[in-house]
């Protein structure tokens, strides 16, 4: 596990091949088992494997940026983490779910990358409509979009760690 933590890198170029559903489910399960405040289990995960819906959400995400690009770097699947805002630890809980899923994807030989702007997308009327269409009700905030898929190319080299980031007492 330690080696996987040290070697995980964000992937920004993907093959179009969709990973098998059972692999995606393992990644999702890793997110569901992430540590969370008082075991409230505030995060929920929306798995997007339908290309039309993936492209729709990508377009909403790009609009938040004010750009006309694919912010999901061609990844075929997106795992969207939202968390229940009524729980005081919701941002941390959702972030831990994202981290667990990134490590699980790496352990299962898939690439991943945390893409921001889930908050803004799912605060929009169209984003809220997508959630309602899935039967998701409540006060959820988008924490992040985890894009996953088979990397197209080699990961970048590990960057040097900045100095003076650890202080010991």
Q: How many strand units?
A: 4
As for the number of domains, it is: 1
N- and C-termini, Cα separation: 27 Å
How much helix, percentage-wise, in residues?
25-40%
What is the CATH architecture descriptor? 3-Layer(aba) Sandwich
CATH homologous superfamily grouping: NADH Oxidase
User: Please, what is the average pLDDT?
Assistant: 97
Structural class: alpha+beta
Please, could you describe this protein's structure?
This protein is of the alpha+beta class. It has a single domain (10-149), classed as NADH Oxidase (3-Layer(aba) Sandwich). It is built from six helices and four strands. A four-stranded antiparallel β-sheet has the order 1-2-4-3. α2 packs antiparallel against α4.
Helices and strands in order, then pairings?
Elements: H1 2-7, H2 21-32, E1 43-48, H3 51-65, E2 77-84, H4 90-107, E3 111-115, H5 118-123, H6 125-133, E4 140-149
Antiparallel strand pairs: 1-2, 2-4, 3-4
Helix pairs in contact: 2-4
Labels describing this entry:
alpha+beta; four-stranded antiparallel beta sheet; 169 residues
Question: Care to give the gist of this entry?
Answer:
The chain has helices at residues 2-7, 21-32, 51-65, 90-107, 118-123, 125-133; strands at 43-48, 77-84, 111-115, 140-149.
């Amino acid at each position: 596990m330690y080696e996987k933590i040290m070697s995980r890198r964000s992937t920004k170029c993907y093959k179009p091949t969709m990973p098998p559903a059972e692999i995606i489910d393992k990644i999702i399960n890793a997110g569901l088992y992430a540590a969370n405040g008082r075991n409230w289990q505030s995060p929920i995960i929306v798995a997007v494997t339908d290309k039309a819906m993936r492209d729709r959400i990508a377009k909403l995400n790009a609009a938040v940026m004010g750009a006309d690009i694919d912010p999901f770097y061609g990844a075929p699947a997106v795992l969207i983490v939202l968390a229940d805002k009524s729980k005081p630890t919701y941002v941390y809980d959702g972030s831990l779910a994202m981290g667990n899923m990134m490590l699980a994807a790496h352990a299962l030989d898939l690439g991943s990358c945390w893409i921001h702007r889930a908050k803004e997308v799912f605060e929009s009327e169209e984003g809220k409509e997508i959630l309602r269409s899935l039967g998701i009700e409540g006060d959820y905030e988008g924490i992040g979009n985890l894009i996953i898929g088979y990397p197209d190319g080699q990961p970048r080299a590990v960057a040097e760690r900045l100095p003076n980031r650890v202080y010991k007492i």
